[in-house]
Amino acid sequence: MAVAYNDLREFIKRLEQEKELKRIAVEVDVDLEITEITDRVSKAGGPALLFEKPRSAKEGKAYSMPLLINALGSKKRMELALEVSSLDDVAKRIEDLLAMKPPEGLLDKVRMLPKMAEIGSFFPKTVKSGPVKEVIQREDFSLADFPVMKCWPQDGGRFITWPMVVTRSPKNGRRNVGCYRMQVFDARTTGMHWQIHKTGAEHFRWLDRQGKGRRMEVAVAIGADPVTMLAGILPLPEDLDEFLFAGFLRQKSVELVRCETVDLEVPAHAEMVLEGYVDLDDIRVEGPFGDHTGYYSLQDNFPAFHLTCITRRRNPIYVSTIVGPPPMEDYWMGFAVERLFLPLMRQQMPEVVDMYMPPAGVFHNLIIVSIRKSYPGHARKVMNAIWGLPGAMFSKCIVVVDDEVDVHNLQEVAWKALNHIDPERDIQFVLGPVDQLEHASRLPNFGSKMGVDATRKWASEGFARPWPDEIIMDGETRKRVDGLWKRLGIDLPPRR
Ligand SMILES: Cc1cc2nc3c(=O)[nH]c(=O)nc-3n(C[C@H](O)[C@H](O)[C@H](O)COP(=O)(O)O)c2cc1C
Ligand SMILES: [Mn+2]
Known about the structure:
By secondary structure, the chain is of the alpha+beta class. The protein has 13 helices and 24 strands. Strands 6, 7, 8, 9, 10, 11, 12, 15 and 18 form a nine-stranded antiparallel beta sheet that branches. Strands 1, 2, 3, 4 and 19 form a five-stranded mixed beta sheet that branches. The chain has a five-stranded mixed beta sheet with strand order 20-21-22-24-23, with helices on both faces. α4 (87-99) runs parallel beside α9. The protein is globular and about 80 Å long. The two termini are 39 Å apart. Bound molecules: flavin mononucleotide and manganese (II) ion.
């Protein structure tokens, strides 16, 4: 196993060695141009891009810091980030961790020690200082110095798209890290787009519930080792610290430093950190913004984030990402979520064999799950359980198929699912919370979801008719035809 990347720079170096990064020396505008270039590269499966000379014609500005984008936008780069040859290797580690039982006898406890020590060694470590403190700006700073992109034509402004937003729960003091976009309002104020279901929003509600103050401290890190950056987007259970999870994933603690003006810790090796606060009395209109769905998310109210200090490296690298019509970089983030969370899902539902979220479904619109069916109504139990999981709760359509179906083969899924359903009987609608980005639901954040039981139906489910066999040619005939194939002179490979 390789040694974890300490910071973004080590990852960039690795990407360059692997020919997975292209430096762009030409001046390119942060208004729309970077998006158009990155979108083309992204759709073609191209490399990460390091724009060395971002500029803004509108502001009449050449930025002093480069902009990295599409850093995790391929399977290969995601594997490089996690330092594995396949994401299933990480899934396996998570599975092993989950398989740990609480020790029963003394002998068990002794046996557990090495494993516990290993996990203990992944806890975030607070250190005295780090590169993110090379420059500390308490007075003289402005977001106008950062190459923040306007991504799409109808966007309401410039958006910081890959922040690691750190908050602490006013209820229990637990830390959370989430990636919530931030619209730049002015030199020292941004929006804080934590959606209603997300942990940052819950922390903010606790501030209100407790009634002890109107402000909540927030710290925002931009650019770090790739696993820490990824951890901010993972739909972890609310009370699980993303920095701890990042430490587990990279097999090395995340080093943290204390902020200057707020009581929070941030990655010591980050490229830059924005410190500040949100205020219950300062809620503003945010958006619109060209979003994951391939549509604009409309204007809505979100808290304003007030900056009190910026700390950074001497020559920081700004990290951005774009979302929009799929597939884009975020598809690969979703892919990582899918692979890493399969073991977590299986812990609660061992019957789940595999799952797939196709790019066109933009994470939450479609999830296909294969199960080993064991009892009547089993597919519906699985749907209901998925609608209760963090993240997956938003799944608008869930299609459940039998274990022999390859969920990654959409042709096979459609063929079998469409054959197996009696629509009125096998489709179930439920009402519940929907993703805040959902634009078709009857109300914001509330709407219906659909589960399709595409498993083979059983007599114990009231299906009294015989279920036909799937058509499969017998092995003998196949072998004979394989033998004949060359002589037939048909210009095709011998097997489909
Ligand atoms: C590129 C990207 C941008 C995102 N932007 C937002 C956002 O603006 N608001 C939001 O609530 N979630 C956004 N998300 C999803 C959250 O990061 C994700 O739900 C995460 O699990 C939230 O962390 P939490 O569960 O600790 O709240 C984004 C995800 C990605 C990959
Ligand atoms: Mn979280």
